Amino acid sequence: MYRIRSYFHSVRGKLSLVAVLCILIPAVLTMLIYNSLTREAVERQAKENATDSMQLVNGSINNLFQGMLNIANYFQVNTDMKSSFIKMLNTDLDPYDKFTATNRIMQQLETLTYIGEKSYITIILTNGETFTNYSKDEVNPQLFQQEPWFNNLKQLTGLQSYWVSTSPTIFPYDRISSPYQISVARTLRFDSTRIYGYVIVTMMENKFSRILGSLTGSQEVLLVDGDGKILSSPDPAQVNQTFRYSRQMAERDPHAGSSIIKDGDKKLLLTTADLSFNDWHLVATEPYQDAIVNISSIFNRVFLFQIISFIVFLMLLLLLMRQLTKPLIKLGKVASSVQRGNLEVRSSIRGADEIGRLGFLFDQMLDRIKEMIAEVSLTHARKRKAELAMLQAQINPHFLFNVLNSIRMKVMRSGDQDSAKMIASLSKLLRMTISRDEDAILLHEEIELLTHYVELMNLRQKEEARLVVDVDVTSFDIRVPRFILQPLVENALIHGFNQSAGTIRITAERTDHFLELAVEDDGIGMETEELERLRARLTASGSGPESVQESGRSGGPGMSGIGVANVAERMRIMFGDAFHITVDSDKGTRIMMHIPIREEGRPHV
């Protein structure tokens, strides 16, 4: 196992692996492409066959629906029937005329009964008169008026039809052979508005199911409405059930007659056809494996040929590579000897190709190693000298702090406590500023630095400013960039208070991924135009230091002079668009910063 692992870690082993891949990958791709093209052709043929079968069923189902519509059209447009119906609406009609009109209507109903497929015709006039081609003793035609869909007929206009989905059969003699029926209803009108009657044509569902079950093989055809409910099926138990592939049918390409869907780990061929009379569909499902031809024998022969070709070319390629990689193996052994400390060994590999040049350069490199060792020793000595100089430079700030501390002690002994306090605050502020080189510090350190700064500023002003810190305890250990609060407090002291007394409030709260840090003062506030100019500069990308002094809140004397805009620019460089800053000013000014928290509470700076 070790020898095999070592072989594949060598150049020869890697080249052998590359050679295998270069032969294997095209072979696999060829088989995949061949299989894909074959599958596409088979899939296309299967879809075409399923679509052709569906067209045959669609034509037969449409003929049944067309026959029902023809009967309804006959009563709606036939002038002789219309005049007979109008006579029956006349309450003062002579009994003989009434008998004659009734007889004419019944003759027409009898004639239509024997044309085409058997259907039940019901005519209901608005005065309660009914005419049927079946016995009223068996079925009361007035029952249709109690159906929930009957009121929808009043909304029909012109030659519009209302298709009643599958419902239990109300005709006793057909109930055994066909438990369900399908109906279509029309309105009879004097003109485009006034209704004088209704015509309902009913056909048994088994006439549709026989056509749906006429296809041979494993294809199952169903009649489904627009809501996915099964209206007709060769299996009566499925009627009025929800079509199990309604979601896949809704997601299919409406222009494609057939599509392949998933049913667990199986694939099905789903074929649909829209009916021209309503929003009903014919849907056929068939196991995909039953719809395609078997191509395994062709695929196996192609695969066997690919394997034989792969083995032959692989052996030939490995033999050639062994001869070509001999210089590389020798060079590797020389490199191993050099690694063990033998700097006198040489490869002596020469030639016009890349390997010969590599051997020559390798030997030349060994000749220069001694010179390089001397150069490295000299560089190391210079580095130590530079480190010594850096350590010496670090003594200067400490010397400055010690001198300030001595001055403070001397001033305290003389009784000038204010001056001593000022020197102490300055010393602490300088120590935190100079002696640390981190880009980010803890929030409580930033607030401590801010406290010393306010103390210094209060000593130089006529009236003192009060600093109030309201920080959530969970926020103290969050790292923030240095000097983000001092410029904001500086602006409040110089521009907000204008040498007068006031209160500056620092608030901080930690949310899910942000630190909400705010600086608020109760100073004179800002004018509207001045506030808008500052907001524009804060939201503008790439606002540099040259625009800071124009903001109206960031110039002036002070320790920093960095300003609000400069702080916003520095934070945007560090955090990008995740950082947000807002400024509000009415009676005083409030600056809110939304700082992202990264790396377990440490912002990326």
TrEMBL record:
Keywords: ATP-binding, Cell membrane, Kinase, Membrane, Nucleotide-binding, Phosphoprotein, Transferase, Transmembrane, Transmembrane helix, Two-component regulatory system. It catalyses: ATP + protein L-histidine = ADP + protein N-phospho-L-histidine. GO terms for cellular component: plasma membrane. Its EC number is 2.7.13.3. It is found in: Cell membrane. SUPFAM superfamilies: ATPase domain of HSP90 chaperone/DNA topoisomerase II/histidine kinase, HAMP domain-like. This is histidine kinase. It comes from Paenibacillus catalpae.
